[in-house]
Amino acid sequence: MGTARHRFGSTLSALPSRFPHGSPNRSPRRSPKRFPTLAAVAAAGLSLVLVAGCGGGGDTGEAKTKDGKTVISMGLFGVMGFKESGLLDRYMEENPDILIEADVAGDEQTYYTALQTHLAAGSGLKDIQGIEIGRAKELVDTRSDKFADLSKTPGLDHFLPWKSSQVTTEDGKLLGLGTDIGPMAVCYRKDLFEQAGLPTERAEVEKLWAGDWAKYVDVGRDFKEGNKKDKVAFMDSSSGLFNAMIYGDEKQFYDKDGELIYNDNPVVKDAWKLAADAAESGLTAKLRQFQPGWDPGLANGTFATAVCPAWMLAHISEKAGPANQGKWDVARAPKGANWGGAFLGVMDNSPVKKEAADLIAWLTAPEQQAVIFEKLGNFPSSKTALDIPEVANGKSEYFSDAPIGQIFGDAAKEIPDEQVLGRKDGTIKDTFSAGLQLIEGQGKSPDEAWKTTDERIKKLTR
Amino acid sequence: MATSTPSARTDGQPPPTPDGSTGKGGAGRGATAGQSRRNILHRLDVRAVPYAFIAPFFLIFGAFGLYPLIYTFWISMHRVELSTMDMMEWRGLANFTELIDDERFWNALTNTFTIGVISTVPQLLMALVLAHLLNYRLRGSTFFRVAVLTPYATSIAAAALVFTMLFERDFGMINWGLSFFGIENVDWENQKWPAQFAISAIVIWRWTGYNALLYLAAMQAIPRDLYEAAAIDGASRWQQFRQVTIPGISATIVFTIVLSTIGATQLFGEPLIFGQGPNGISGGADNQYQTLGLLLYEEGWKNYQMGRAATIAWAMFLILVLVFVLQRVAARVKAGRPARAAKVTKKTKSTPSATS
Fold first, then answer.
1. Which of A96, A152, B30, B186 is most buried, judging by how many CB atoms fall within 10 Å of its CB?
2. Does the keyword Disulfide bond apply (chain B) (predicted)?
3. Cα distance from A241 to chain B (closest Cα, Å)?
């Protein structure tokens, strides 16, 4: 390092020569006495303050504003719709003594990480916290003591039977009230179906694959046969098909006792086989939903179908753009399934527990769920709401006036009455998606990909 | 302590003995209580104030550097999940032995190394060339100097997002450009080397200008007469670059290599955003570009296993320490050679530039 230093005097070596008479902190020529002592004390004090500053903080516990309003804070994520639909404003208008402060995180992953940290620390929590379905089981298992019991809330029987059971502990404590759900259908491009010589009318398309997902893949083969334009694939990704198949059953990766069963569960095995088959046969566009390439794929029509939960319609219509309005349509899926959904819970140590519980009971009541469906398309988890005209007669102008209220409503009723959740459901699902990509993108054999996936799941659940 | 302080003199004290002893002597010669207190204050001033001045750094370092380091080590000895940080299960060093047996760790280590090499080497070479060009007298040099620094000022997220779009398979600009040369669409994300190359491109783009400015600063400290002397001796521009410039900035080169090594070891943001979503966290479906930073993130913030994540953090720390020690040893071995007292131009030929 040092060979060149003295010859050329690089900037880095200039330092030692600055104090030619020895170390700088010895023998100060003039020592203004008071100043350094004071400054030193001040500096030391300041650093103590800085160090201490990172402790403390946390719950404010302040539940009233100056003019006597009760403040309810909410932690939400993504587009849950309460703020966007104006429902929160309406509640504040109808209840002038309430002030709602909703904090919306765009990304659920970030939101949940913060929520976990706050739960572990016991501070920084809002009065109301949103719970994504993939996290429900973990919270039920590990943090049920932090949530208020909502099971005494009047009028809970309007929810779909499986919705509330997902956030109920073994001893009957209800941690949250259901917001939306994600019943599934198949979104398809009429123009591309026509090109391939397939029927384009909704009723006929549904008949092509009615009752069996394997038929859906067969239609894909016909599509490939009929469409000589190589660039268009039948479906966007094999993982979409995999999700739709496993979520039509009451159990996926875990059994009720929390044991991993994906290895023996025929539902998972069958879904894997069919999805791997579709991937190997080149029926997919080798894309990942919500990842780069998927959005332009929607706009440019690089694939003809996508398995779509109700909440995906908003995304598709936004990304495919006005140019494709009327080209897309929605058909019933071979089998009803549920992908996604959320809950609202109240924290047990909230000073406004009662008011917060009233608020979420109102927000998740059938009428309000119908409003959110009408404005944003999030599908109600309330059985009663399915029969409200705004929902039952709901149509999507973008998707060729498809009767989405009817289609998704029927799918919602087909969902099994019990839905067993597991602690690592979300991560395991992602691992399966990656496994299918090994077939699609890396050209691995289904057996090899299953082996890798199995190993990965064992490691992450260990 | 030979000089007395003026403040002591104005108090009417006899100056301390000139033999170099401190104020102690003055206090010993029958001074009053007030005077001795003043002397104590004086000594405290001289002795303690420097410590007080540097105290903020050490206090902050202790709170934000040392404590987290030790606490991370403590966590790495446990099995603990993020949602239940208050429930820890003692595992001793089991996390470390498991990590050594884990092929994902070795895969991530290899990827970190390969991405590190294919990003650091071209980056530093290009920075060297850029700095050399900027070192010429040229019109609008300030503009160019600022311009090379702009990528560094861009946020990783923005840069990585733009590059992700450029390297997109179906509609990316790079594949579009390649198609004119009859090259089929490259699946940048899904294939190992294209993915690593694309990530390196982001790193190179971001850091080249930064390093170039460091080199430029060092180059400007090289005396002009050396170049003049070399020119008189008949050295070409290239010879001047190799035999005057490079040795002149060798210390800076080592510095940038150390910086880049640390940066490469901690490579995280670029691959995470390049993969987007779950694939970014696992570094591709086949972990083809998962770096150590990403593996840490996956264990900590996807699997929520804080104990295992802390273990990886410590492994990374140990790797950096190891690299640092090796570099010191190499420098020491080098310095031990007789190449030490080289003279200006002629001898530099025999002195290999201290870049390694």
1. B186
2. no
3. 18
pTM of the predicted model, to two decimals?
0.79
* Domains in chain B, CATH or no CATH each: 52-90 (no CATH), 102-334 (1.10.3720.10)
Looking at beta carbons, which residues of chain A come within 8 Å of B351?
Answer: 3-4
Residue A436, CA atoms < 13 Å, CB-side half-sphere: 32
Alpha carbon B185 to its chain's center: 36
Are A343 and A178 in contact by the 8 Å Cβ rule? The answer is yes
Chain A residues near residue B55 by CB distance under 8 angstroms: 40, 43-44, 47
State the pLDDT at residue A230.
Answer: 67
Output A39 or B301, whichever has higher pLDDT.
B301
Which two three-digit tokens encode residue A280? 């190997």
Q: How far apart are CA B16 and CA B242, in angstroms?
A: 57
Q: Say yes or no for a CB contact (<8 Å) between A3 and B351.
A: yes
CB-nearest partner of B83 from A9, A119, A297: A119
Beta-bridge partners for A303? A233
DSSP string, A93-151: HHSTTEEEEEEEES-HHHHHHHHHHHHHHT-S--SEEEEEHHHHHHHHHH-GGGBPP-T
Nearest CB partner across the interface for B168, out of A109, A293, A459: A293
Question: Do A302 and B170 make contact, defined as CB atoms within 8 angstroms?
Answer: yes
The radius of gyration of chain B's CA atoms, rounded to the nearest angstrom, is: 28
Instruction: Nearest by CB to A2, from B48, B303, B335: name it.
Output: B335
For A22, the closest chain B residue by CA position comes to B1
d(CA A367, CA B116): 57
pLDDT at position B31 is 56
A245-284 pLDDT per residue, tens: 999 999 999 998 889 999 999 999 999 999 999 999 999 9
Which of B38, B104, B165, B170 to mutate against chain A (most A CBs within 10 Å)? B170
User: How far is residue B138's CA from residue B127's CA, in Å, rounded to a whole number?
Assistant: 18
How many angstroms away from the CA of B219 is the closest CA of chain A? Answer: 8
Buried/exposed code over B84-117 (b: 16+ C-beta within 10 A; e: otherwise): bbeebeebeeebbeebeebebbebbbebbebbbe
Q: Are A190 and A306 in contact (CB under 8 A)?
A: no
Going from the first residue of chain B to its last (356 residues), give the mean pLDDT of each consecutive group of 10, the final group possibly shorter: 43 46 46 79 87 92 94 95 85 94 95 95 94 86 89 90 90 92 90 95 94 94 91 90 91 91 91 86 92 94 92 94 89 70 44 41
Q: What is the per-residue pLDDT for A63?
A: 65
Among the partner residues A31, A113, A290, nearest to B5 by beta-carbon distance: A31
Chain A nearest C-alpha distance from B221 (Å) = 6
CA distance B132 to B328: 28
DSSP B46-61: HHHHHHHHHHHHHHHH
- Rg (alpha carbons) of chain A, rounded to whole number: 29
* Six-digit token string for B79: 């099995």
Tell me which chain A residues have a C-beta less than 8 angstroms from the C-beta of B223. 8-9
Structure tokens given for A214? 């394997």
From chain A, pick out residues whose CB is under 8 angstroms from the CB of B343. 7
Q: Say what percent of chain A tops pLDDT 70.
A: 86
Q: What is the DSSP letter of B300?
A: I
Q: Which residues in A lie closer than 8 A to residue B254 (C-beta atoms)?
A: 1
Residue of B3, B85, B248 lying closest to A4 (CB–CB): B248
Measured between CB atoms, which of A44, A119, A297 is closest to B55?
A44
Distance from CA of A429 to the nearest CA of B (A): 10
Residue A43 has pLDDT above 70, yes or no: no
Distance CA A330, CA A406 (A): 11
Q: Give the gap in angstroms from C-alpha B311 to the nearest C-alpha of chain A.
A: 15
